[in-house]
Design brief:
The protein has 6 helices and 8 strands. With 233 residues, it is of the alpha/beta class. Helix 2 (26-44) crosses helix 3 and helix 3 packs parallel to helix 4. It is globular, with a radius of gyration of 16 Å. 44% of the residues are buried.
Length: 233
């Protein structure tokens, strides 16, 4: 039996509740999400299979998760490269970017060139709040993600996918099926179209309190891999 999913409206409401009644800050939620993403990369792409990780970040919270993940990956021994063309002026994102620059993590404006020199890609461009058209400079980036042979991990949603309706019928994301997906907090409705490895991460809520259908995490793990039927692997 498939896991219950969390639609965009309810996901936003849950985040809002966590930052009010739950007393979490947005920094904490992003830190936990990014930590989970980094653990998923470590699970999919162990260091011995290649240390180079290209992280494509969008301008919003999904991109922030990628910035956090990069810092953790550097400490694990990876060599992150950031593609962050629409850098936010928000103070939180500025601090996250500075943390990476202080570690001498490189930022690139040439996605195609970076893609040819990496072992793994993290797609943290658009998340559960995405809707409408993909705007520049991301159409060609998503096409490159679709066409590459390099393994891709999507954060919360493959970029350009509709959170409710799954993959687009046209546009740059048509045919885009990453090798892996990490759903943050809980799966979103689009997972029923997803065919790759599926992780759930962001271990920050009591599932029963929010009526979430999430398999139990083990030990210190921040992620759990699940089958198409929603069973822990």
């Amino acid at each position: 039996m498939a896991l219950r999913t969390l639609n965009a409206k309810n996901a936003a409401a849950l985040d809002k509740e966590l930052m009010s009644d739950g007393a979490f800050s947005v920094d904490q939620l992003m830190e936990l999400a990014g930590l989970a993403v980094s653990q998923a990369v470590y699970q999919i792409q162990p260091l011995q299979r290649g240390r180079r990780v290209l992280i494509a970040c969008g301008p919003g919270n999904n991109g922030g998760d990628g910035l956090v993940a990069a810092r953790h990956l550097w400490h694990y021994g990876y060599q992150p490269t950031m593609y962050y063309p629409k850098q936010s002026k928000n103070e939180l994102y500025q601090r996250l970017s500075k943390q990476l620059k202080d570690l001498n993590i490189s930022f690139t404006e040439d996605f195609d060139a970076a893609l040819k020199q990496t072992d793994h890609v993290v797609d943290s461009i658009f998340g559960f709040s995405f809707s409408g058209e993909v705007r520049e400079p991301f159409p060609k980036v998503i096409e490159a993600l679709r066409d590459t042979k390099v393994p891709v991990l999507a954060v919360d949603a493959p970029s350009s996918w509709n959170i409710e309706d799954g993959p687009p019928d046209s546009g740059p994301g048509k045919g885009f099926m990453p090798e892996a997906l990490i759903s943050l907090t809980a799966p979103k409705p689009l997972v029923k179209w997803f065919k790759g490895r599926h992780f759930i991460g962001g271990r920050k809520v009591v599932a029963e309190k929010y009526d979430l259908d999430v398999p139990p995490y083990q030990g210190i793990d921040q992620i759990v891999e699940v089958s198409a039927e929603g069973q822990r692997l």
